[in-house]
Amino acid sequence: MDKKTGVYICHCGLGGSTETEEILKKLPKGSIVKDSQYLCDITEQELLIKDINEKDLEQVVVACFASDVHRSIFKKVGDEVGFLPNLIKIEESDDVVEKIIAALDDLKPIKPEETEVDVNPSVLVIGAGIVGEQASLDIGDAGYKVYLVERRPNIGGHMAQLDKTFPTLDCASCIGTPKMVATGQHPNIELLTCSEVIEVSGHAGEFKVKVLRHPRYVDENECTGCGICVDNCPAVVASEFNLGVGPRKAIYIPFAQAIPLAAIRDPEHCLSCRMCEYVCDKKAIRFDQEEEIIEFEVGSILVTTGFELFNCDLRPELGYDKYDRVINALELERLCAPTGPTAGEILIHGKPPKNIVFVQCVGSRDKNVGNEYCSRVCCMYATKQCNLVREKVPDAKFTICYTDIRAFGKGHEEFYNRMQDEGVIYLRGIVSEVYRGENGMMKVRVENTLMVEPVELEADLVVLSAGLVAPADTPQLANMLNLDVGDDKFLAEAHVNIRPMETRVKGIYMAGCAQGPKDISDSVAQTSGAAAKATIPISFGKVKIGPEDEVKVVKETTATAAPIEKEVTG
Amino acid sequence: MPYPFAVPRTYTINPELCLRFQEGEGDCSKCKDACPEGAVDFEQTEEEQELKIGAIVVATGYDEFDASLKPELRYDLYDNVITGVEFEKKLLEAEKTGKIEINGKEPKDVIFIQCVGSRDKNVGNEYCSRVCCMYTAKQATMVKDLIPDSNVTVCYIDVRAYGRGYEQFYENAQKKGVRYWRGNPAEVYKDDGKLVVRAENTLLGDPKEISADLVVLATGMTSKSDARELGNLLKVPQSGDRFFLEAHPKLGPVNTASDGVYIAGTCQGPKDIADTLAQASGAVMKALIPLCQGKVFIEPITSVVDEEICSGCHMCEKICVYDAPTFDEEKGVMTINSIVCKGCGSCGATCPSGAISMNHFRDQQLFAQINMLSS
Ligand SMILES: Cc1cc2nc3c(=O)[nH]c(=O)nc-3n(C[C@H](O)[C@H](O)[C@H](O)COP(=O)(O)OP(=O)(O)OC[C@H]3O[C@@H](n4cnc5c(N)ncnc54)[C@H](O)[C@@H]3O)c2cc1C
Ligand code: SF4
Ligand code: SF4
Ligand code: SF4
User: Fold this and answer.
1) Tens of pLDDT, residues B194-236
2) Which of A64, A176, B61, B86 has its CA 20 to 30 A from that of A327?
């Protein structure tokens, strides 16, 4: 440590003051140590540059609270003096002097080694739920090419499975289908269904992408979606799209409004009778279709891989795997939906349910299952579902067992109040057990903080408000893209508050539930935001990158077996 | 300068306080004389600038709820009943000094009251302000950190810790000893010089009185007081909660009824910084699309005036909120600016001469549909 050093301690996020002399004692001659209030301020930075030039400082250390977000702020300093300050993160609990001295021992100079590169005017969007669709439409509308990669045979994600949506009770198909159609038809959007990204390399401006396209065994361009093959197929299995509530064939169209509207053959359940091939007028069936690898380059990447529903079997005391009167909320959505397997008729053991109990926070706010976070949508979707069921079973009674009702979005509190006025009972308490009573009905035991004795409710239908969890393969996806994953297992943003759509890799952005649970309104606003981030470098045509912005190729990939088998799992 | 890191980093003269601007106070020019750059200019006047732009983003934020509208909380009366924002300033000072002081004394019993002016039909704000649960959790934790032997109680209805990391934060506050007490404070009063909060515990059903030497009101967000004027200027309506109304809550959360005008952040409804920034970039995307394209598409359904029939009475001009009808002096009839027309049909319904019809949506079409349905 013999270089003339400047140490700047920014107190804006730290408070207090430091024993600057203590640090100065340990530094070579000619060094300086200064306290500062707001180092990101332009005038203070000018003073910093002046100090460096006048005092011939050879290295500069900036100790501050938010070192992770401030690197770019010191670009100007780098441009002027030829090296960048080393930023050290200091927290209030730290011994500032000690931490700075320790850091000084092992200081590597940072050269502003940025180069300007051209930006490929196209974007890769991974995951085609409502969030992926909206981002693709925005970028496509701005005039740039989009590759939209979706693992399932069709786009639409979870929203396509919903009945009506809170708080305005818009029908999910009515508002979702036009988006799917627009996405399918957009001249700038290249839709790659049954596909997974398997390798990414390069850097912002020019990522090289490899996509594995699984066989559909049907020519997407020839198939008209007439369904004649489906009618004639003899092999019947449970429909994943309807969460097992209804059947499907081995060759099938997941749902009537599916985009692309083309059949898909599931080789696992196919009996190889070739009936489908025989009846198809268009000769669209392709038994010889094989996996295909597609390669292309893009300027930015957007990750919109959404969520999976919490697996309710992990709360065995709630009886989800034991009783068919206990269902999860997404199953209820399928039961309510007019386009669902029961055409909107809700029958439990042949009868419409009269006494429905909702259990909130299943798999959320629960350390025992490893999910400490709140899923943000279940309070409102349960409230909404009372309304949906009431439309069909007007004399049904509803009880929602909850800890806190989180009706925080626009129009949410109003909706919650309305449902209370309409007789939905909100019971504050934690459900400890669901079991079968002597009369065959379910008993829900609620530890109500109000009373010393737990209450027991009788129900002919128990709905588990299951939380939203990160897709199971998020760690692999994150690994492939060099991204971080948060404690909650969702993808981590560059900064929770101020960079909610950016990731640690320049040029890779994310939105929607891939970043954490949120409702459609918040997801859609965020995804347009991420689309803007992805579009800005493209519209400039140039982006500056440094050596650390390079994506390292990770051989481990997310690609699994055929997408059909691991399609909607809930 | 309002605060040290203000941008732009420029001083402003407040004419209401500046002696020079007060009548009969002479012509003090101390600041001008002192400024080495000669930057002070007393002659500056208002000026109008005309800008040509392709899109507008409204990001005017919110006003804080005025706590005096809840007189039972005695915000106006007692100086140790303060708002969350005021307490935030105290905490900023405390960060430097290491001490929280209220009237020269360190408070020992601190009560936070949640949902002040939010979730409250009586003050006309039914909505939740979305941020107060968390800013209280932060403030309550800081009080515990700075005054470890203090009693900190949060009176709440529901704790809405929904964002990333929020639940952990809430739990951490509880671990540090912040007491969460579910109840609705009915009144704050003084007894023997000490504040007393009377509240009903919704869990146990009985009222309770807790004494305090500091009460912090978690005041909510309300729409800007001038939202209506700005809304009228830009033709952006407000929703029932008086925040700006988005075109569609799910599919157009940043779009408005006016094409080319987008909304972002708390002017559309309360939200935290992360959600605000996401929405802000969302609005940017929408504004970018026409800029990148260099062109905009307009709706095919607009109104048209039959020049033969129009009497030039200007009725349509008065009814149209988008200022689409204008008078053609030469022909003596109205014409419709189809770029701004939204095809709402108000003018057509108003026109006493029946001169206005809607493109692709003519009366004959409607009648045919009605006949079809009724037969
Ligand atoms: C029961 C229930 C009811 C709800 N009701 C409402 C409501 O009423 N109102 C409301 O606003 N919100 C509601 N929500 C929330 C709403 O579903 C979400 O906000 C929304 O679906 C999020 O969309 P998304 O695109 O982020 O995720 P998703 O819909 O999950 O879409 C993600 C897509 O990415 C694909 N994908 C995942 N990984 C990969 C990969 N590695 N490669 C390629 N593709 C991949 C998936 O197949 C999927 O198509 C509800 C949620 C549930 C569970
Ligand atoms: S070949 Fe397979 S997919 Fe085709 S009809 Fe027979 S079972 Fe069905
Ligand atoms: S939204 Fe409601 S039900 Fe869902 S995890 Fe949060 S508090 Fe629980
Ligand atoms: S209301 Fe009808 S008649 Fe009157 S000015 Fe308008 S178009 Fe002409």
Assistant:
1) 999 998 876 666 788 999 999 999 999 999 999 999 999 999 9
2) A176
Same domain, A413 and A536: no
Minimum-distance ligand 4 atom for the alpha carbon of B319 = 1
Specify the pTM.
0.88
Chain A residues whose beta carbon lies within 8 Å of the beta carbon of residue B100: none
Query: Average model confidence (pLDDT) for chain B?
Result: 92
In a domain, A140, yes or no: yes
Evaluate whether A121 touches B292 at the Cβ level (below 8 Å).
no
A127 lies within 8 A of chain B by CB = no
CATH number at residue B205: 3.50.50.60
Q: Chain B residue closest to A490 (CA)?
A: B164
Nearest to B4 among A38, A143, A487 (CB): A38
Q: What separation in angstroms does the CA of B144 have from each of A333, B138, B149, B172?
A: 45, 10, 7, 11
Which CATH number goes with the domain that contains A33? 3.40.1360
**Calpha distance A343→A328 (Å, rounded):** 18
Residue B356, domain CATH: 3.30.70.20
B174 belongs to a structural domain: yes
Look at residue B48 and tell me if it is in a domain: no
What six digits make up the tokens of A166? 């809170």
Residue B203 is predicted with a pLDDT of: 64
Q: In what order do the strands lie in the sheet with A145-149?
A: A189-192, A145-149, A122-126, A300-303, A508-510
- Provide the ipTM: 0.85
CA A515 to centroid of ligand 1, rounded, Å? 12
Count of domains forming chain B: 3
Question: Are residues A465 and A475 located together in one domain of the fold?
Answer: no
Rounded percentage of chain A residues whose pLDDT exceeds 70: 94
- Full domain range(s) for residue A55: 5-112
Q: Is B225 part of any domain? A: yes
Name A205's Cβ contacts closer than 8 Å, sequence gap at least 6. A117, A118, A119, A120, A299, A507, A537, A542, A543, A545
3-class SS of residue B155: strand
- Evaluate whether B287 touches B300 at the Cβ level (below 8 Å): no
Residue B30 lies in a domain: yes
Q: Give the DSSP H or E segment for A176.
A: helix A172-185
Structure-model confidence comparison of residues A446 and A96, the more confident one: A446
Q: How far is B83 from chain A (nearest CA, A)?
A: 21
Q: Write out pLDDT tens, residues A164-174.
A: 999 999 999 99
Per DSSP, the three-state class of B318 is: helix
Do B234 and B255 lie in one domain? The reply is yes
Cβ-defined contact of B282 to A522 (cutoff 8 Å) = no
